[in-house]
Design brief:
about 220 residues; alpha/beta; Rossmann fold; 7-stranded mixed β-sheet; 3-stranded antiparallel β-sheet; about 35% helix; binds S-adenosylmethionine
């Protein structure tokens, strides 16, 4: 787990998560969640027997929508304020889980059919590699990983860390926070490096921002 992810968790634990939850109440981004829900549902072929785990669920909107539609889903996070919020909105299955530190088999006693990691821009290249390895081992043989990454093409002036991570510490203009946060950006080549030995690409597109290219969105199928 990188120093950047440790700083991120510390920031969320010391008020950052409450700030995030409050902003979500003011701007619940309903359209974005509806779109993601449809995308996930399509990739699941609407099969309600599939076991779904979401990594870093934050306020829990996606997990709640999936649960409400009859899917078997577990929301997770490592930050208590987010876990409390997930419980508060009525998610039945909530687990404290740090996907970079905790042993999957100590927390879950089954393999997942789908893992979702949505909008977790606070992971550098090594953290992301670890997430891919963890997801690979946690999935059933034809299991899916739905994941998005901020697109490095949109951030040409980012710094580059020795491990190849393109990143910056900043406050977002449209979502101002008290402290700067770590954001990592990934190129298509970075994603190839992360996925090529472990996953096939089932679906890929870009979305977000005026030009619809702020994020890479992928559905990956575990290679067997
Ligand atoms: C930017 S928020 C996104 C939350 C939610 N997925 C969304 O799209 O609104 C990133 C989330 O990932 C969680 N997170 C970051 N690092 C984590 C880790 N190592 N293990 C578990 N959760 C983590 C944070 O606590 C936070 O809830």
């Amino acid at each position: 787990m990188s120093e950047h992810n440790i700083k991120t968790i510390n920031m969320y634990n010391s008020g950052g998560a409450l700030e995030y939850i409050q902003r979500n109440e003011i701007d619940p981004e309903t359209e974005k969640w509806d779109k993601l829900f449809d995308y996930v549902e399509n990739n699941l072929c609407k099969d309600k027997n599939k076991k779904i785990i979401e990594f870093g669920s934050g306020c829990g909107q996606l997990a709640f929508m999936l649960q409400s539609a009859g899917y078997n889903v577990i929301a997770t996070d490592t930050v208590d304020d987010f876990l409390n919020e997930q419980n508060r909105i009525g998610i039945n299955k909530v687990k404290k889980y740090n996907f970079l530190l905790d042993n999957y088999n100590d927390v879950f006693d089954f393999k997942a059919d789908l893992i979702v990691s949505w909008r977790n821009p606070h992971l550098d290249m090594d953290d992301m590699k670890k997430l891919f390895d963890v997801a690979y081992n946690a999935l059933t043989d034809d299991g899916l990983l739905i994941i998005n990454f901020q697109n490095a093409d949109v951030h040409p002036n980012a710094s580059v860390l020795p491990n190849g991570t393109k990143c910056e510490y900043k406050v977002l203009e449209d979502k101002p926070t008290k402290e700067k946060r770590f954001y990592a950006y990934f190129s298509k080549e970075d994603i190839e490096y992360l996925r090529k030995d472990l996953f096939e690409i089932e679906e890929y597109h870009n979305e977000g921002g005026k030009e619809q290219k702020n994020w890479h969105v992928l559905t990956l199928r575990k290679k067997v």
